[in-house]
Amino acid sequence: MAQPSKEVKARYRESHREELRAKGRAYAATHKEEFLVREKRYRQEGREWVEKRDFSRNLRRYGMSVEEFNRIMILQSGCCAICKCPPSESMHGRLHVDHDHVTGKNRGLLCHACNCGLGNFRENLLALDAAKIYLQQFNKIG
User: Fold this and answer.
1) Position 11 in a domain
2) What is the number of structural domains in the chain?
3) What is the DSSP letter of 5?
4) Does some domain include residue 52?
5) pLDDT of residue 101
6) For residue 96, what is the domain's CATH number?
7) Is the residue at 38 inside a domain?
8) Is 107 helix (H, G, I), strand (E, B) or coil?
């Protein structure tokens, strides 16, 4: 027996919309635990897939191999090159490739906060020095 065409199935779903929704809600209510487990697994696997994809994209963007990334991680003891915090304590739980915006050369791995900090100061050493002096003035008072 031939399968109904997509158009026939679509017309059926359209004409029986409420009935099909009610069946779906009843099934979901009787299989709630199964739905929760499946949804949790889907979210976790999806998040892991996105993280792997983003990681690979970033390495390609900066011309870095996984081996080079791992070598730098070992040299930095798995921590941010600036604040020395492990990636688990940083905002996104991973280290980012830091690079010179003029030369494009990779410098090291930074946590999200330090990477944004350098970016916000536009890698301007004078501005960074001024910020350091500013903070030191207030640390002397307190």
Assistant:
1) no
2) 1
3) P
4) no
5) 85
6) 3.40.1800.10
7) no
8) strand
Intra-chain end-to-end CA distance of the chain, in Å: 84
Return the pLDDT at 42: 82
What's the rounded Cα separation, in Å, for the pair 71 and 106?
13
Structural domain boundaries enclosing 142 = 78-142
Distance CA 73, CA 66 (A): 10
The type of residue at 105 is: K
Which regions of the chain are under pLDDT 70? 1, 89-92, 141-142
- For residue 106, give the H/E element and its range: strand 106-110
Q: Residue 136 domain-assigned?
A: yes
For the entire predicted model, the pTM comes to 0.62
What b-and-e string marks burial along 89-122, b requiring 16 or more CB atoms within 10 Å of the CB?
Answer: ebeeeebbbbbeeeeeebebbbbbebbeebeeee
Residue count of the chain: 142
| Element of type H or E holding 70 | helix 66-75
